[in-house]
Amino acid sequence: MSIVKEIYNTTPKQIVDSLKRRLGGTEEGGLSPRETRMKLKRLKQELLKRFKRYNTNNLKDIDGNDFRTFIDSEIDHIDSAIEGYSPEELDRQRDLSVKFHWGHNHDFGDFSIKGRMGNRHINVFANFLSYFPITIESFEDKQVFDIGCWTGGTTLLLDSLGANVFAIEEVKKYSRMVEFLIKSFGLEESSTVRPLSLYSCNSDEFKNRFDIVSFPGVIYHLSDPVLALRILYNSLRADGIVLIESAGINVDDSLCKFEGPLFRLDRTRIIGGGKKENLNRGGWNWFLPSPSALSRMMKEAGFDHIQTNWDYRRGRLYGYGKKSTQVGICKAGLSVQDID
Ligand SMILES: C[S@@+](CC[C@H](N)C(=O)[O-])C[C@H]1O[C@@H](n2cnc3c(N)ncnc32)[C@H](O)[C@@H]1O
């Protein structure tokens, strides 16, 4: 996190909490801070090792030069038409949906690409494995719904854990890249991607289908997080779990901070970085929940065994929940009335 962003986002309470944690005591699971750091380090090493298989030595039916040429041709390419934006609405659209930016760091062996999110895919999954009652083996042979996969770091990582992955991405240009990667590495048997918003996954095709919903980095980009959680809840089989990671606010009360996409548009630089003229500004967030707010939203959506956790190192929020059995949702005021 940049220093400006860190100061902007840190309350006095968070500073005190963080100091208390650094001065000793145990974290969740009874581990000391040092043991937690060592555990995380080992998990990251293991995940990175698995991800490394996606290199040019392991391409299927495509020459290394052709592989690189296609990727290079997409990076920095500006295309609003493919996303269906009309010229009149273009100035309100997210920079990263209009211009192609690579998501997660990827060392392809012959060449490597720095992603805007760095090694986020590795770090976030290491945190999931460290905070919640799951192991690397929990993904083996499971049906996993990967929400908002960007250029596919999460999709490939989940595939490397032995999962059958169904990924969705609302930005068509990114979904097309993930489709290309899946084909290039011969993963068509185990992984699929579709250019879909999660809000279009409220049909029978998606109901009771998945064992795990992987939902990092998306919920704060959504205008209706409760509806999103309900759609994902319905997509799970009984005993299925959801893994959530999000921007958030670290306060005790059940609160959400409303930003709205215009928050970034009005500030051309500073927060989130990037410049309008480079079409590389971050942001376009709607609601940033506190741990308690996320927990309550998950409960309303039907989840139980809920855990939420604040990651002090990166200032992010994590959530875990289970669908033990199908329960109803309150229909009063719900934005989609005919949802299960
Ligand atoms: C911050 S990135 C997170 C990428 C990846 N999930 C991760 O955790 O590293 C958010 C991604 O979610 C996608 N996204 C946002 N809203 C979505 C929606 N309603 N349905 C599907 N994808 C969405 C964005 O286009 C973007 O690629």
Sequence of secondary-structure elements: HHHHHEEHEHEHEEHEEHEHEE
End-to-end Cα distance: 40 Å
The shape, in one word, is globular
Q: Please, how many domains?
A: 1
CATH superfamily: Vaccinia Virus protein VP39
**CATH class bucket:** Alpha Beta
Please give the oligomerization state of what you see.
single chain
**In order across it, which strands form the biggest sheet?**
5-4-3-6-7-11-10
What's the count of strands? 11
Quickly give the structural class: alpha/beta
For the biggest sheet, the summary is: 7 strands, mixed
Please describe what this structure looks like:
The chain is α/β, with parallel strands linked by helices. It has a single domain, classed as Vaccinia Virus protein VP39 (Rossmann fold, 3-Layer(aba) Sandwich). It is 33% helix and 17% strand. It has helices at residues 3-9, 12-22, 33-51, 64-74, 95-98, 120-131, 153-160, 172-184, 225-235, 262-266, 291-301; strands at 106-107, 112-113, 143-147, 164-168, 191-194, 210-216, 236-246, 256-258, 287-289, 304-311, 316-323. A 7-stranded mixed β-sheet has the order 5-4-3-6-7-11-10, with helices on both faces. The protein has a two-stranded antiparallel sheet with strand order 1-2. The protein has a two-stranded antiparallel sheet with strand order 8-9. A hairpin with a 4-residue loop joins β1 (106-107) and β2. α3 (33-51) crosses α6. The longest helix has 19 residues, at 33-51. It is globular. The two termini are 40 Å apart. The structure holds S-adenosylmethionine (SAM). S-adenosylmethionine binds at residues 103, 117, 120-121, 124, 147-150, 154, 168-171, 174, 197-199, 216-218, 221-222.
